[in-house]
Amino acid sequence: MASPGHVAAFLIAVCFAAGLNVYGTVATLGLVARAGLVVLPGELGVIQSPWVIGACLVLFAIEFTTDKIPLVDLVWNVLQTFVRVPVAAFLAYAALPMLDPPVQLAAGAVGAMLALFAHAGKTTIRAAVSASPEPVSNFSLSMVEDVIALVLAGFATQYPFLAAGIVLTLFVMLAFVARRVVRGLTNFVSPAP
């Protein structure tokens, strides 16, 4: 992952994935790096520690279970705002130690914003789906989110430009769907006369 373009595409995908499922994203990156399939940029080598991978796998298992329970998943997702966004900022910051500190901080802020957008979109859609009386849609949506995060993290290590392209597509789709959900909830709460 030598070129700046590869690192930028990698970070776009990884920060977005962290906004969906931070523990799965970090564990995937750590496992792929530990297997020798990629050399992580900058100071990200720390996430291939067995302790970091182990902690992320345990937290991924907790999130995997918690995220499938309607209403509990909303509380979990709100609390995860304080984990997903800062970890994405750290990933972007740590990947770029060769940059001047202000630019490195700006990269961290962009990483945080990508994660926040993914996280906010996920939470908005989840709020709409959790109102549904049947549990299948909530469970299915949670599974899709987990798969997308893990696939994005894996692709980012091997095909960073493809992963960034997928993020761009998801970004547009998520913005469209979240806007429709918010509009629908607004119309539901205060119907037009």
Can you walk me through this structure?
- There is one protein chain.
- With 193 residues, the chain is mostly helical.
- It has one domain.
- The chain is 79% helix and 0% strand.
- It is built from seven helices and no strands.
- Helix 1 (4-20) packs antiparallel against helix 6 (136-158) and helix 1 runs parallel beside helix 7 (160-189).
- The N and C termini lie far apart (57 Å).
Radius of gyration using CA atoms only: 17 Å
In total, the number of domains comes to: 1
What's the N-to-C terminus distance? 57 Å
Topology, number of strands: 0
Task: Tell me the series of helices and strands, N- to C-terminal.
Answer: HHHHHHH
Q: Helix- and strand-based class?
A: mainly alpha
Shape: globular
Q: Which strand-content bin applies to the residues? A: under 5%
What count of helical segments does DSSP give? Answer: 7
Portion in helices: over 70%
Uncertain stretches: none
Average pLDDT reading:
90
Q: Main sheet? A: none
Keywords:
about 0% strand; 7 helices
Short description:
The chain has one domain (4-187). The chain is 79% helix and 0% strand.
Task: Give the arrangement of secondary structure elements.
Blueprint lengths: L3 H17 L1 H13 L15 H17 L5 H23 L6 H30 L5 H23 L1 H30 L4
